[in-house]
Amino acid sequence: MSTPSPVNRETHELPSSGGKSYPPIEMWRFGEPGARPKAYIQAGLHADELPGMLVLRRLREALEEKAARGEILGEIVLVPVCNPIGLSQTKGGYLVGRVDEATDRNFNRGYPDLCALVQEKVSGKLGDDADENVRIIRKAMRKKVAAIEPADAYETMQKALFLESCDSDIVLDVHADNEAQLHLYTGTVNWPDAKDLAAELDARAVLLSDESGGEPFDESNGHAWVKLGAAFPDKPILQACLSATVELRSNNSVSAEDARRDASALLRFLTRRGLVAGEEGAVPRLLCDAHPLRAMQQLRSPAEGLIVYKARLGDTVRTGDVLAEIVPPLGGEPSEVLAETDGVLFARHDQRWAWEGKVIGKVAGREVLEARKGKLLTD
Ligand SMILES: [Zn+2]
User: Fold this and answer.
1) What is the Å distance from ligand 1's center to 130 Cα?
2) From start to end of the chain, where are the E strands?
């Protein structure tokens, strides 16, 4: 009989703010602390993007079975509800979890620049051994993040999550879109390394960028290594973190079937990556290609009115196709929203009311669009 792998349930308290108190953040740690590879997976950073929380509950149950059989080989940290602050915000009968209502900050922006944090500390310590450099840099990252002094509940939460993710080999931040097919955002440097993740999850779009703007969680972890490579061009610096934002279809689409399938996909991925013992099987066929985030058209409404979509999720569209009409309910000509690229319509908005400039859909195109500059994500 094999010895069970350790499983630890840890809690991180959050301070109360503005008279509101919050439940602590709960983390499950599987495997020996310090074992490699290390994966960090969280859900609910945008607290109203719901399906990931059920997926991580399922994954936690599967990993507990693996742990009981002594089959955890690396270290896995799961945070099924990573944002108790967002989860406490309700308005008009709805959970409103994208933006911190106390400070108006998007919960998935403003994570620390790890490269800037450690650059001075590691300068002079790095040598010609790439693996040793990774160890030195990770140790410095943990130390620097641990020293951050948070000013409020929002920053305390950011720090608790980031401290655990910053030295990981794999970081997955699980979100969902308004109404969407499953898609991934990841660094250009992580492709095609992340292809097995995309294929296991049956992604229908993969968007690549170096810097999407605003320091989202996944990018702040993974892109630090690209920046360190540029900061120390004469030292071997590996891309030591595969980070991705996983967009699990639609915010409100929570189903037992999807959760089971997605949790199994993540378990096979973790098995293939050597964190869990077992048979992962062959990598399934990926049904999309990866394209630059700058080739993704954000469909913007030209006017106020009702959104009447003329294309379905997953439709292949061509430049000039009418993807939606914006219809003024009191009369007058509808305005058209056109595809400006050839690609796949992989996201729409679930609330069919638009105003000028509102993003009402996303098309994964192949060719970079000149207009896509600056901040590439929707705030
Ligand atoms: Zn999100």
Assistant:
1) 34
2) 7-12, 25-30, 38-43, 75-79, 90-91, 94-95, 170-177, 179-180, 183-187, 205-209, 242-250, 290-292, 296-300, 305-309, 316-317, 322-327, 335-338, 343-348, 353-354, 359-365
Domain interval for residue 211: 7-288
Q: State the greatest distance between any 2 C-alpha atoms of the chain, in Å, as a whole number.
A: 75
Q: How far is the CA of 145 from the centre of ligand 1 (A)?
A: 23
User: Which tens digits make up the pLDDT trace of 17-70?
Assistant: 888 999 999 999 999 999 999 999 999 999 999 999 999 999 999 999 999 999
Strands 205-209 and 94-95: unpaired
> Are 257 and 310 in the same domain?
no
Instruction: Read off the CATH number of the domain in which 342 is found.
Output: 2.40.50.100
Q: Ligand 1 centre from 165 Cα, in Å?
A: 17
**Residues 240, 93 share a domain:** yes
Q: How many alpha carbons fall within 13 Å on the CB side of residue 75?
A: 16
Cα 83 to averaged position of ligand 1 atoms, centre (Å):
12
Distance 45 CA to ligand 1 centre (A): 7
Q: What letter would DSSP give residue 295? A: G
Mark whether 180 and 52 lie in a shared domain.
Answer: yes
Q: Which percentage of the chain shows pLDDT scores above 90?
A: 94
- What is the 367 CA–ligand 1 centroid distance (Å)? 25
Q: Torsion over CA of 54, 59, 62 and 68, rounded to 10 degrees?
A: -120
The pairing of strands 205-209 and 183-187 is: parallel
Q: Which tens digits make up the pLDDT trace of 243-285?
A: 999 999 999 999 999 999 999 999 999 999 999 999 999 999 9
Q: What are the structure tokens assigned to 226, written together?
A: 């690209």
Ligand 1 center to 233 CA (angstroms): 34
C-alpha of residue 66 to centroid of ligand 1, in Å: 29
Tokens of 24: 């602590």
